[in-house]
UniProtKB/TrEMBL annotation:
GO terms for molecular function: 8-oxo-7,8-dihydroguanine DNA N-glycosylase activity; class I DNA-(apurinic or apyrimidinic site) endonuclease activity; damaged DNA binding; double-stranded DNA binding; zinc ion binding. PANTHER family: FORMAMIDOPYRIMIDINE-DNA GLYCOSYLASE. Keywords: DNA damage, DNA repair, DNA-binding, Glycosidase, Hydrolase, Lyase, Metal-binding, Multifunctional enzyme, Zinc, Zinc-finger. The lineage of its organism: Bacteria, Bacillati, Bacillota, Bacilli, Bacillales. This is Formamidopyrimidine-DNA glycosylase. Monomer.
């Protein structure tokens, strides 16, 4: 599932590709991927321009020039591709926005969605989310105050979008490894020092992942050299039985709250 770094990468790359260009055509192949009747969706979106793209947690907001917003959540298995008809992947396309002879393809939207909303409606969706972990005002002091109220397994807490937004399965494991804490620990049992290390791990892992285009390997467009460059830099995620980069012991995999979880049993405590 795309997490905060993947959606930030999409935002940055798509801003270079589609801002200010008219949406010349709209195709909807799966009505459940949108929130209004297909004919109305096409009428409302066709001919508009995307004037700004924002990211909030795992969402993208495509701001249109009529003050409407296309709110995207890719969910599990969702991704995007931008290119010509000849370049598109051989995959089922749920929604397509055309910009002349180039198109933005929304792929794998079986759980995800692209909803057309006004600004207030979009805000109502996003207000339910926890704080943005990379926001300038989300300081260590605020994090320590925020975590004081939380109970439960650390892994489960990190992927709880109402607690902190944008973190999913991959980065929760990478953050725990960075902080040298086992993901199955109870969050209320962490010491002040461990909580501080957790905050630093959140910031450092997410910032590095953004710098290297996230871990998802599907390129956004032909020649994309950015998307997915963080995948080989993952220390534990999907690294079962590989040697730990810190201590050399094999990385383990366990199920934590029905989620695959990777960690080092020796240097995570």
């Amino acid at each position: 599932m795309p997490e905060l770094p993947e959606m930030e990468t999409y935002k940055r790359l798509l801003t270079e590709k589609i801002i200010g260009k008219p949406i010349t055509n709209v195709e909807v192949n799966r009505a459940n991927s949108i929130n209004i009747p297909v004919v109305k969706f096409i009428e409302e979106v066709k001919g508009k321009q995307v004037i700004r793209i924002e990211r909030s947690a795992k969402h993208l907001l495509f701001h249109l020039n009529d003050n409407k917003v296309l709110l995207l959540h890719l969910m599990l298995g969702g991704w995007m591709f931008y290119g010509t008809e000849a370049e598109k992947p051989k995959r089922t396309i749920q929604v397509r926005l055309s910009f002349g002879d180039h198109h933005l393809y929304f792929i794998g939207l079986r759980l995800g969605y692209l909803h057309l909303l006004n600004f207030e409606e979009a805000n109502q969706v996003l207000q339910k989310l926890g704080p943005e972990p990379l926001a300038s005002d989300f300081t260590e002091a605020k994090f320590l105050q925020h975590i004081e109220k939380k109970r439960g397994i650390l892994k489960t807490s990190l992927v709880d979008q109402h607690f902190i937004s944008g973190i999913g399965n991959c980065y929760s494991d990478e953050i725990c490894f960075s902080a040298e804490i086992k993901p199955m620990r109870q969050i209320q049992d962490l010491s002040i020092d461990e909580r501080s290390k957790l905050f630093k791990g959140i910031r450092e892992v997410l910032q590095e992942a953004i710098a290297y285009g996230g871990y998802m390997e599907n390129p956004l467009y032909v020649g994309d050299q950015i998307t997915g460059q963080f995948d080989p830099r993952c220390k534990v995620y999907d690294r079962e039985e590989e040697p730990c980069v810190r201590c050399g012991n094999p990385i383990l995999r366990e199920e934590v709250s029905s989620r695959k979880t990777f960690f080092c049993n020796v240097c995570q405590h």
